[in-house]
Amino acid sequence: MITASPGARTTPATTHQADWRQLWREAITDANALLAMLGLEHLASRLPADDAGFALRVPRGFVSRMRPGDARDPLLLQVLPQLAELDQVPGFSTDAVGDMAARSAQGVLHKYDGRALLIASGSCAINCRYCFRRHFPYGDEMAAAGQWRKALEHVRQDTSIRELILSGGDPLSLATAKLEELTQGLAELPHVIRLRIHTRLPVVLPERIDTAFQRWLADLPLQKVVVLHANHANEFDPGVDAACARLRDAGATLLNQSVLLAGINDDAEILAALSERLFAAGVLPYYLHQLDRVQGAAHFEVDDTRALALLEALRQRLPGFLVPKLVREVGGEASKRPL
Ligand SMILES: *Cc1c(COP(=O)(O)O)cnc(C)c1O
Ligand code: SF4
User: Fold this and answer.
1) pTM of the model as a whole
2) Quick check: CB of 136 below 6 Å from ligand 1?
């Protein structure tokens, strides 16, 4: 016989879901605290003042996938401010792709045929040191209902748009109720057959893919593609696998884009392991991006000759469907440019 003290409650583990907003708020934002969690206090003297002008931000779950005591950990290096970010390097600017200001002002970016990209939110759960976002701390004004309407009006008037891409920032930083509001507007756009979501949240805060979100995605009467962003196999753990499984169960095709980053994944073994790990989670590699040349990120750059050699090495060791396309974004072109 099982006895329980008065007032004791048992919550079946299977029905419990962590509140992703709470986890979002509990992210680490102090570089010294992060170093202390990893037993790397001795690196504190190498931190730039004021996080080099771009706040450190990393969810605790992502920190738990870092190797304690390893100053070269590939996940740590993606988020830890470095003195090298202060270097002014010719060719690296604060507006690397040339249209970032226009992006945040208009909310919709229609550069490529058939696809319109909506800046759904400026927020991210993690601050990646190599990201153009470090120079565009745009707020969340795009999430306002009025902005949705303007962006959707553009899409309504252009019937050549078959695919709507939600990007940012991270569009899944929005509450599911906000996403519902947006996709209700899609019912008036019969020419849009596909919704694509560009998000790093299933990797860095997999709790975001909760039951309510999964239901929203599953109920959308559209083709669905979710493009994740992971740069290293170590970013995966059972929680991320579960989030990917929930996305697939909701009917989404899962792809991944990575950024080629010196000291993090510029190695054929590491890139091959990433592709294999992605496939194990039900995700296909899509793009491997050459770095956008943003000021403060020059130390991450891998030159094109090496990038092409890495790609060739990948082709030799992997099936074709696990080799990503190596591309660079060049302002004003009709597509991403293959290298
Ligand atoms: C990258 C991007 C897309 C998507 O390009 P695909 O090659 O289809 O993945 C669409 N619109 C804009 C503005 C982009 O930057
Ligand atoms: S937009 Fe993507 S790469 Fe940039 S900070 Fe957010 S999650 Fe990182």
Assistant:
1) 0.93
2) no
